[in-house]
Amino acid sequence: MTQLSEDCFAHGGALMRLDEALSLVAERIQPIPGIESIPLTTAYGRILACDLIASNDVPPHANSAVDGYAVYYDDLLPGRETVLTLVGRIAAGRPFARRVRRGKVLRVLTGAIMPVGESDDGPDTVFMQEDCEVNGTRVTFPSGIERGANCRLQGEDVTAGKKLFATGRRLRAADLGLAAAIGREVLAVRTRLRVALFSTGDEVQEPGTDLEPGQIYDSNRVALGALLTSLGCAVSDFGILADDLQKTADGIAEAAKNHDLIISSGGVSVGEEDHVRAVLESQGNVDIWRLAIKPGRPLILGTVRTAACPVPYLGLPGNPAAVIVTFLKFARPLILRLAGASEQSPRVYPVRAGFSHKKKKERREYIQCVLTVGADGSFTASKAGRQGAGILSVVSAADGLVELPEEMEYVRCGSMVDFLPFSEVE
Ligand code: AMP
Ligand code: MG
């Protein structure tokens, strides 16, 4: 008699390690070629398509960092107070029309361009107004200030000619600010990745409808749509494909038109209603089928032939928690690569395990955990609830994933483990 499988992950056949699968992605997936110029105001999260070089200094001129009084440092008496004569005022954006002689001071407001001197560089040091005593045009300065205090130098933030960002940078808010600071109003970015998204399964129904016995609502598509959108993809919703070979084939062929990537969930396991693999084998090819990870083993990566060029196809598991884990650990780097982003892997952080756990060798395992801070400031990761590929509420309650490597067999409570916060990848 055949033996019962030890668990639902015991299906025979070779499973690919996650590292190996990601190396295949790095080898075989080339970024989409499209580039477009877009206004800076719409470039948040977009991927830069060429290096960004600073065309001017930031700040473009030396200016005061505070509201106060600009003096020549060399006019100050060492070790005692100095009294100097006030001759004018400069506000931000309104340069002083005259040159300033030695022995004179100017009232300066924050951001005001530093005044020019008569025969030299001009006042070079700014006292904060709180430190000065003003009596008509007589201003008394305390001793002890450093040369150049409270004065921002031209180009101290960015020097003209400096490479601000390399191509492939996913633009953050501060990046856009910097691009504006060098005067750019338009940036060349990669076109958005056009992703066709669908769910599979006769039991899977749209939220908002009434369920018949045996049916469930589609939770994967809305979650995947959100994850794809947050990565800057243009998502086309292809709905739910029935468990039928011909319908699956037709749906995939349709989705392959005008898209850079197709993503689905479900229908990629070993049941006789799992048709995606058969369709890929006849309409394209399969590069990866089944990963050695938990949750998330049933996963397929291949391509679909089209009249133009082959379109990558990523079939994620059907179980909702496995969908999130495989998206973050596998789909995300694949999508970023295809979209032209050159990002480092997300950082994982060492934390203490707040649980003991036995695991299978040769399989990478992800535990959905919440973090707590101890009295000494160190973090402990505890299971967010009962772990299961189909249990989405625990993913939702978790702060991130503890990643247990393939070779590990047992996690001892209190030992150090790697923690990937969802905030690094969502
Ligand atoms: P499958 O791989 O198609 O056999 O699906 C595995 C499990 O995930 C089954 O229990 C499905 O009912 C469930 N599932 C598949 N697709 C979805 C979906 N879009 N939303 C929620 N659950 C799903
Ligand atoms: Mg199914």
Notable characteristics:
Molybdopterin biosynthesis moeA protein, domain 3; six-stranded mixed β-sheet; Beta-clip; binds adenosine monophosphate; Molybdenum Cofactor Biosythetic Enzyme, Chain A; alpha/beta; 3 domains; 426 residues; binds magnesium ion
Protein topology:
Blueprint: H1 18-28, E1 35-39, E2 52-53, E3 63-64, E4 68-71, E5 82-90, E6 104-108, E7 125-128, E8 133-135, E9 138-141, E10 151-152, E11 163-165, H2 173-181, E12 186-190, E13 194-200, E14 204-205, E15 216-217, H3 220-230, E16 234-241, H4 245-256, E17 261-265, H5 276-283, E18 284-289, E19 293-294, E20 300-304, E21 311-316, H6 320-338, E22 349-353, E23 357-358, E24 364-373, E25 379-383, H7 392-397, E26 400-404, E27 410-411, E28 416-421, H8 422-425
Helix pairs in contact: 1-6, 3-6, 4-5
Summarize the structure.
The protein has 426 residues and is α/β, with parallel strands linked by helices.
Give me the side-by-side strand order of the main sheet: 7-4-6-5-9-8
What's the number of structural domains?
3
| Average pLDDT rating | 95
- What percent of residues adopt helix (DSSP H or I)? 10-25%
Low-confidence stretches at least 5 residues in length (pLDDT < 50)?
5-12
Supply the number of helical segments.
8
Ligand catalogue: adenosine monophosphate, magnesium ion
CATH architecture of the largest domain: 3-Layer(aba) Sandwich
Largest sheet: 6 strands, mixed
- Strand percent estimate: 25-35%
Oligomeric status: single chain
What would the principal axes of the Cα set say about the shape?
A: elongated
CATH level 3 topology of the largest domain: Molybdenum Cofactor Biosythetic Enzyme, Chain A
Find the structural class using helix and strand composition: alpha/beta
- State Rg: 31 Å
CATH superfamily of the largest domain: MoaB/Mog-like domain
End-to-end CA span:
47 Å
Please provide the count of β strands. 28
CATH top level assignment of the largest domain: Alpha Beta
